[in-house]
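Submission checklist for the structure archive. All mandatory fields must be present; incomplete records are returned to the submitter.

[x] Identifier: Carboxypeptidase PM20D1
[x] Organism: Parafannyhessea umbonata
[x] Residue count: 476
[x] Sequence attached
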Amino acid sequence: MAQVWKFFSHEDDYSDMSEEGACARLGRALSIKTVDGPTRDTTDWSTFDELEAHLRASFPLTFGRAAVEHVDHSLMLTISGEDPSLLPALFIAHMDVVPVVEGTEDDWEHDAFSGHVDDTYVWGRGALDMTDQLMGELEATEYALAHDWRFRRTLMLCFGQDEEMAQSGARAMGRLLEERGLRFEYLVDEGDYNIVDTGIYGAPGRFGMRVNLCEKGYADVRLTVRSAGGHSSNPFGGTSLATLSEAIARISRREWPVELIDINRRMLECLAPTITAEPLASLVRGGRAAIDANADAIAREFASRRELYPFVTTTCAPTMIEGGSQQANVMPQDMSATINFRLLPGVTTADVLRAVSEDVAGLPVEVELLNDAANDPSATSRSDGYGFRKLVDVASRYFVDPQTDEPLALIPAIVSGATDASMYERVCDTCMRFSAFVADADEVARGVHGTDERITRRAYLQGIRFFIRLIQETML
């Protein structure tokens, strides 16, 4: 039994929904190998055409009703509502999945692209990240249209082609919507797939789901040291490896500011009535006023904990080194290293580049920001408007603490990873990264970008119910 099942409620909603059909359609989608290549030119785009053909065959009412546009290899669907005074809603997802790590193919219980469906699970790369949500959004839309629900609010669905690589598809669609002068009431994208024990925030014995309203920025900085190399018996002036190591050490020793940013204050304000563990309990007692007054102490407490440390500071992680010698008695020539930064809101990629350049001053090191994936931190979305309130209302129906019969807390939060949602923040001030397609923590840790990715049938159906209800509550 999956642990998340115990939090499910109202599983009898929409009882005419076909479990077998929905799971079979997801399994077929998971069998289509929409893997990004290392570059755009090495991606097999025919698999994306195959996926689109499957979507059209699976959801004929949706594709028949919607205005369908291609933006490069991304898909944009518009189902017009009857009331133009209502801002449209936007469901987004990405069609691409990450590859299976070479050499681990046989570690899978079922082939990663088999789309195997059994009595408990639907298996395959993308079952959690995030073909399930793409298919679930379409299942919900098709259900609504099959029941002749009249949409008062326009619904758009945008499916990006390369979230796992460059996000060019979502970036292009976001820019196009901005050029058209569109604004959206709310947006829903993927979240972290978890139901979390709020004990990590000082509220033990309770559970919640995170709604990520912003994301940290991203920067890869490459360091390059050039050398003639030569015999290791005469390392006069040092080696390129020694210089590169010194540069990495200096950069890693920098202490970035620790700060309790606004989203963390909102999170603690949400949880404050249930926080009982010290020292946080004393620091948040009194709600937002106390949180603001004790912000520095709370930030230091977060920074001391592995689970919370990334959310109060910019992080620096050296991840790649290239060019080392293949023999112990040969000095390396040109060497490079890549350092990954995740930027707290308030820090920009320009700030990172400036800091790295300062840290290596005096060393013969070239510094380069790799721009392909660099992003400043996103804007922080609203948690006080219509979209967030409706998301809470619907989630409260389907995710309940079995010990108290109370809805799980929906916790405003920041995510360290990148999502396509940030590409739409210029057209929407309520970008919510939330997954109703949940799994146990060990399933998420192992399966997302790892081995034996899968989702339980019950979790998949519960996620579809969430989206059907969200359509019912906000579109009709």
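[x] Structure attached
Curator remark: The mean pLDDT is 96. The domain at 217-257+314-375 is CATH 3.30.70.360 (Alpha-Beta Plaits).
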